[in-house]
TrEMBL record:
Pfam families: WDR93. Signal peptide: none annotated. It comes from Mytilus coruscus. This is WD repeat-containing protein 93. InterPro entries: NADH_UbQ_FeS_4_mit-like, Quinoprotein_ADH-like_sf, WDR93_beta-prop. GO terms for biological process: electron transport chain. Residues 266-275 have a biased composition (Low complexity).
Length: 702
């Protein structure tokens, strides 16, 4: 069969653009399309079940990953308690005496004083319906302690402990008939008990103010000595009669078995009733009010009647003020608000709706010694340890202060060193500002976190930080130390505060915590062990950490039948100069409760005692000796002159060698100078001397 083929015709394949695309619904490309789709409502049920299976699988996978991460963690050793103080079942607060001799326990009926070494009860003060929630101790004289306490009803009291007895000095806000009830939300004394700051609140009018009182510390010490002398005279004949009766009773009667504990308890009760009777009618000197501070009012319009009176009230602008004295009237402020609302009407729905201002504000204050920022008291060297000023910060600044410190953001925390020479302020934007109050200069500003505010600040002992040695001057100028900074997101940092300022990069001790149970609820330094800090987590773990590395050294093991009471605000303290830890725990509630057990009383608690000095992981820290280094250095003019003269005398032996070396250099320098002179003279002689005849005739010379 003949076939006709055209000549000069090339075959061209079809264009790729014209190839039809594969159908997405084609069952060949997707094997799942082999089955017909389910009708409604089964299709929706299938989707719900599929989503449920995926969610469950994600949960199982996340839990499995958490188990793996938890199993890979290196767990710190856990130590058990060696003693349980059952008589402190209703303990609400506790504090150390400061010298490591006593522990002051606040409970539901008063105050109990125990020996920090033996945990034996020394004395107690009891009163009905007094459940203490706050207690602090200050040493005002040798073996004399001032106790500041606040109960759950907002009543504050001042006690003195001396001679193994407690004395009620002052009831700060005792309610009287016909007057409004005033509660105290914060009460803090200076380090040596010279002044007392009290924050009062009126629940009815919602007013709040701060009062500073001068405490008659020296008068109290004198009065306590007189009381102890009188009591000692009364107890001498009673003691003789008691000894005679005890000798007669031991000869005639035999001791009964199992009654030692009852006798000791009865004896302590008898001693307590006797001490209460002896100190019941004693009157002590009363504190004196220094001044009273109220919160700053909101910025409002100027109510002056004329322009002249308005200008008289306006600040000159030479110093930074509080913003209360201005020339803006109330009408002008209202008009500006209306204009702002009109221009940003579309954005006002995203603003906060609550415009009400709560009058109850948190008041923070620190007692400060004399410094060059406010030099009151520097003229008398004997008053350098006595507070002369008070630093206060509210939500805004105080109305009429002696000095105003401006900051770029709101203040969230603050701390003062023991001698009040250094002050650190934490801001809401994650920055910290360090001020040297004694020199009156700012040491530095450093950014800690960009996404969290500063929650707590602590000054660490400078003995744990290597000190910078300077060649000159020969006397010390500043001390190098660390600052412990805690952020609200759970991160913890250590900032080096050197002689030249603060370090650029803070040291991260604990990263940001995502789980709420791992966030720190309490962070405190340990007295006597500057290398360690005590941390309590919100999940109930009580840990001892290395302050410079952030490593968990050990944990306190709580019995399975108990748990920590309120882990977000735990009752824990360290006494006996860091050798003993006291922890308040309560019984666990049963998992299954019947109707018969619903009316049961609240779970009973106890105080567990942990001897830290017996833990193997802390042995190296107890054996490590640290020399005490003051955080602030004050070198007087006499000390500076003495140091310079000593350096001059020490360098006197080297002066002869330096003088001989210098004379040898003089010879070389003189010879060099003479050579330069001869060379200059030789060049001057060889130089040609020009005269008018030697220059030749030019048109310029006529």
């Amino acid at each position: 069969m003949p076939v006709y083929i055209r000549k000069n015709v090339n075959f061209t394949p079809p264009s790729l653009d014209k190839i039809p695309l594969e159908d997405e619904d084609d069952y060949i490309t997707d094997p799942d399309q082999l089955k017909d789709p389910l009708p409604q409502p089964y299709r929706m049920i299938d989707k719900v079940l599929g989503q449920l299976v995926e969610d469950v699988w994600n949960i199982v996978e996340s839990r499995e990953n958490e188990r793996l991460e938890e199993s890979r963690k290196v767990r710190p050793p856990r130590h058990e308690n060696t003693k349980s103080l059952e008589y402190l079942r209703k303990c609400g607060c506790m504090t150390d005496s400061g010298d490591g001799l006593y522990m002051f326990i606040g409970h539901s009926k008063g105050i109990i004083v125990i020996d920090a070494n033996t945990q034996e009860k020394v004395t107690l003060w009891e009163e009905d319906r007094v459940d203490l929630q706050y207690i602090r101790a200050h040493i005002i004289a040798p073996n004399v302690y001032l106790l500041v306490s606040i109960d759950d009803m907002g009543f504050s009291r001042l006690h003195a402990f001396s001679g193994d007895k407690l004395y009620l000095l002052k009831h700060l806000n005792e309610h009287q008939e016909g007057t409004d009830k005033m509660i105290i939300s914060k009460c803090k004394a200076s380090k040596e008990g010279d002044y007392l700051g009290v924050v009062f609140e009126n629940p009815e009018s919602r007013d709040i103010w701060l009062e500073i009182h001068k405490l008659p510390r020296e008068n109290w010490v004198t009065e306590l000595d007189n009381i102890k002398a009188k009591l000692q005279k009364k107890e001498e004949p009673k003691q003789e009669v008691k000894e005679v009766k005890e000798e007669e009773s031991t000869e005639t009667a035999e001791p009964a078995e199992g009654t030692d504990g009852e006798k000791s308890e009865s004896q302590s009760q008898i001693q307590q009733t006797q001490s209460n009777e002896d100190t019941a009618g004693v009157k002590f000197s009363q504190p004196s009010l220094v001044f009273k501070l109220k919160p700053p009012p909101q910025v409002s319009g100027n109510l002056a009647s004329s322009v002249y009176s308005t200008c008289q009230k306006v600040d000159t602008g030479e110093v930074i003020g509080t913003g209360q004295n201005h020339v803006l009237s109330t009408t002008q402020i209202e008009l500006r608000k209306e204009v702002f609302d009109h221009l940003h009407e579309n954005l006002l729905e995203y603003a906060s709706k609550d415009d009400t201002v709560d009058n109850i504000q948190d008041v923070n204050f620190h007692f400060l010694n004399a410094g060059k920022m406010i030099p009151l008291g520097l003229e008398n060297p004997a008053n350098l340890t006595i507070p002369t000023t008070v630093a206060v910060w509210w939500k805004d600044n105080e109305t009429k202060p002696d000095m105003v410190w401006p900051f770029t953001a709101k203040i969230t925390s603050s701390a003062v060193s023991d001698e009040t020479s250094l002050m650190i302020i934490g801001l809401v934007d994650g920055n910290i500002v360090l001020w040297d109050r004694y020199l009156g200069i700012q040491r530095g500003v450093i950014n800690i976190s960009d996404n969290s505010c500063i929650e707590k600040l602590l000054f660490l002992d400078p003995s744990i930080c290597p000190q910078e040695m300077t060649e000159y001057p020969p006397y010390s100028t500043r001390t190098t130390s660390y600052l412990l900074v805690q952020c609200r997101n759970g991160a913890m940092y250590a900032v080096l505060m050197g002689a030249g300022g603060t370090q650029a990069e803070p040291i991260c001790l604990s990263p940001q915590i995502e789980e709420s149970g791992e966030i720190f609820s309490k962070v405190e330094t340990i007295r006597g062990l500057p290398d360690l800090i005590l941390t309590v987590l919100q999940n109930g773990n009580v840990q001892i950490r290395d302050v410079l590395q952030g490593k968990v050294l050990c944990e306190m093991k709580v019995p399975d039948t108990h748990e920590i009471m309120s882990p977000w605000d735990p009752v824990v303290a360290i006494g006996n100069t860091g050798q003993t830890l006291y922890l308040r725990v309560i019984e666990r509630e049963p998992a299954e409760t019947d109707e018969t057990t619903t009316d049961a009383s609240t779970p009973q608690g106890t105080v567990l005692v942990y001897p830290l000095n017996t833990f193997n992981t802390l042995e190296t820290f107890f054996n490590r000796k640290r020399d005490s280094i003051p955080l602030s250095v004050h070198t007087t003019v006499d000390k500076r002159v003495d140091a310079l003269m000593k350096e001059r005398i020490a360098m006197q032996a080297l002066r002869k060698d330096r003088m001989q070396e210098r004379w040898n250099c003089f010879k070389e320098e003189i010879w060099t100078i003479l050579q330069y002179k001869e060379q200059a003279a030789r060049k001057a002689e060889e130089r040609d001397v020009y005269s008018p005849g030697s220059l030749g005739w030019t048109p310029l010379f006529k």
